[in-house]
Amino acid sequence: xxxxxxxxxxxxxxxxxxxxxxxNVSFSVATGSVLLITGRNGSGKSTLVRIISRVLSPSAGSxxxxxxxxxxxxxxQTRIGLVxxxxxxxxxxxxxxxxxxAMGVRGLPFDSARADxxxxxxxxxxxRNDPVRTYSSxxxxxxxxxxxxxxxPPLLILDEPTSNLDEEGVGIxxxxxxxxxxxxxxxxxxxxxxxxGRFDAQVDLNERR
Amino acid sequence: xxxxxxxGVLLTGVVVLGFGLPMSPAPQSWYELPVIPGLEExxxxxFFHVPTAWLSVVAFLTSMLFAIQYLRKREPIDDIRxxxxxxxxxxxxxxxxLTGAVWAKFNWGSYWNWDPRETSIFVLLLIYGAYFSLRSAxxxxxxxxxxxxxxxIIAAVTVPFFIFIMPRIxxxxxxxxxxxxxxxxxxxxxxxxxxxxxxxxxSLIAFTxxxxxxxTLRVRAARLEAHHQSGD
Amino acid sequence: MSGAEMTPGRFLRSVLxxxxxxxxxxxxxxxxxxxxxxxxxxxxxIILFSLGSExxxxxALSGMLWVVIFFGAMSGLSRTFVMEEERGTTLTxxxxxxxxxxxxxxxxxxxxxxxxxxxxxxxxYAGFIAGFxxxxxxxxxxxxxxxxxxxAAAATVIAAxxxxxxxxxxxxxxxxxxxxxxxxxxxxxxxxxxxxxxxFQEAAGEFQILVSYIVVVVAIxxxxxxxxxxx
Lengths: 209, 232, 231
Fold this sequence. Notes:
The structure holds 3 protein chains of 3 kinds. Chain A is an alpha/beta fold. Chain A has helices at residues 45-52, 76-79, 95-106, 112-121, 137-149, 167-183; strands at 5-16, 19-30, 33-38, 60-67, 80-83, 155-159, 185-189, 201-204. Chain A has a 5-stranded parallel sheet, with helices on both faces. The longest helix of chain A has 17 residues, at 167-183. The radius of gyration of chain A is 17 Å and the shape is globular. The mean pLDDT of chain C is 91. The two termini of chain C are 27 Å apart. In chain C, helix 6 packs across helix 7 (137-164). Helices cover 83% and strands 0% of the residues of chain C. Chain C has one domain. Chain C is built from 9 helices and no strands. The interface between A and C is large, with 37 and 34 residues.
């Protein structure tokens, strides 16, 4: 992992069909911190998450992910992990295959031993050879965590982190969040503050219209 | 204002002279148009058919240029311009196809023959049709503008291929095409007499001005509508 | 996470992974392959019945082959993008891979699909349609190969456009036809030449056009793909 990582957003604005979803959103967090994004349903939390994940371009403003010693064009794909209700797995494939696909498409080598231990951690190991479409919604949510973590991203973005999860699942997620906070940057978008615990910076989209 | 008046005068002049001036085999005076063997009275169509065909191509190129501009700068006004130009181009393309078909009926006996130029204008018509079908299928404005721009660029890139392909595939019926029996190519070979040329080029200029005028009107109208909708 | 830049080796791995994902998914469900085979068989059967005992002139038969291929392409080549939209995995791919890797991976998939489909089509067509005779087989084979590449190139980029436009079915042929027309005219002409037994040199002009078409379409698609793919 590189040295200190910084995630910074400046003057972010998004307009859909001439309707402004949010405007003038700025933030800056570094390794070891948590950015919390809050807002009513429809206030644009998921939209902002998409912009930070670099799958959506802002109408104005910019997002930067910088690290000491980071070089090369568009390194974002391998530095981000995303868990979101909008992110689907490749459901015709098994859990192990999904992880293999994820690494392959990211251009990274697949370490099946590490994949197995990660699946173990999210309590999916016994079902690892079943197609994801046979999973319950809680299992799918946990699968998304495995999907997001196998490549050890310095930036982890969680949109509604505990949706569909039972108590055991929530516990797993809390542990993951603690770990991520320690070694990288954690971004959490949620309205349930119990999800996140301590945080270092906040963007509240309720005020931004 | 002055442009409008000039345009009105030019167009009226062209229409009157184009249809009104008599044709005779050996023109005596300035107001007599020569008879082109093989075309005779039907030659009058030159004043209208060729400019509309010309404009449908110009409009397409204009639309494509604004499409490139939109992709680079993402300013909605560029998409408005691109779409306005394409709309006009579509209209002129339909006119060109219809005037061409009418003339074909009189000259060759049937409305459509798949000669290279006819095929080309037909392809242009298809491209315009496809372009507007695509636009009407996308609801989100930014996506609509982006996809339409991309499509018009792709279409524009494949059009030059026709220039190389057509001559290989068929000989043409159009005056001036390869295989034209009497070499009656009034435009390419400039068999037009000076007075015909005056009317022809005036028509070309008049139609181009018409295009430019309609284009600015459409863009202005679209901008007004956009402002009105967003409640400015 | 060190060395996370997208090197050429990584890029290639990404392209292959995307191709293999689509390929394996297809093998698993066999949805598209069986539908396409049925399409080709049905279409050729219909042609056989309509021709009856009279047959048709050789030129028409050359053209008709490519009509079947065109509609086969329209039936099958949009699936690779439309499927991602339907399953909601477009976002997943946008997250995992650079846009151009997605383009090349899916282009590769469509290439393999159309080559297989056209091989079957040509075999069935040449086998069952009596009037269709090829006197210069190498010219014909090269035509089918280059034509397939051309179809894959054009069909892939248009498929990406209609998938992102969230439209179904009917818009795909409408958008594809004007783009593919230069390709169609050239391959039909080349097939006619092969059917008449023309020498390679005579068809060389058509091959040149085909190769330039492929290069131009792939190049422009590569340059524009990011605009289509990303929001």
